[in-house]
Design goal:
This protein is an alpha+beta fold and about 240 residues long. It is about 20% helix and about 30% strand. Strands 7, 8, 9, 10, 13, 14, 15, 16 and 17 form a 9-stranded mixed β-sheet that branches. The relative contact order is 0.16. The structure holds uracil (URA).
Amino acid sequence: MERVQKVISNLGYASRREAEKLISEGKVYINDRVASLGDKVSSSDIIKIDGNILDKNKNTKVYYLLNKPRGVVSTVKDEKGRKTVIDLIDTKERIYPIGRLDYDTTGVLLLTNDGELTNKLLHPSNNIEKVYLAKIEGKITGSAINKLKSGVKIDNIKTSPCFVKLKSYNLKTNTSMVEIRIHEGHNHQVKKMFESVGYKVSKLTRLRFAFLDTTNLKPGEYRVLSIKEVKKLYSLIK
Ligand code: URA
């Protein structure tokens, strides 16, 4: 017996969080009875979502690496009707992004229908490294960099120690380019970290997620991950 939200996400129908939302909204049925969060199901139970029976034999997993452009939301649907990252990918599978990048953030974003991999890559205990390049207004000081390195308070939580490096300073535009490598994934974490030491991020790019970067991909372009890359991602998680 397994929890219904886990079965839904393992079958690649939705992420665990989305599956929980569908259950809370009363859209999931187990053997024609409305499911509740935490209900357990066995392989003989019939799960229905929005009227469609979940096919337990259908298990095609797909994995994409997108160089996310600016001006696109990282959700499956947007209430305001804005373009989403899903619109950029030509697939019949129901995919979703592994984590989020802000509307104006560019760079590496993975998308898949593999719920198990998604949950594990996003779980803080797996310590996946995310590398960002931030354009900062003004000349960042060594003391601000040291504070960021040792951890700052954002939304009442202290960020973990991380790698931070000033890459360049442009006197003409009075902007600094700073590389930051984090292992957590709090909401707007990078922008809030810089804000907490008095700086505004004017541009943000994710250069790398784990070992994956945007080599040969222009913003808006994507590619399918190789089997070797998917196996390598699995090797990083517990
Ligand atoms: N941190 C941010 O502030 N924004 C992103 O898009 C990603 C990390």
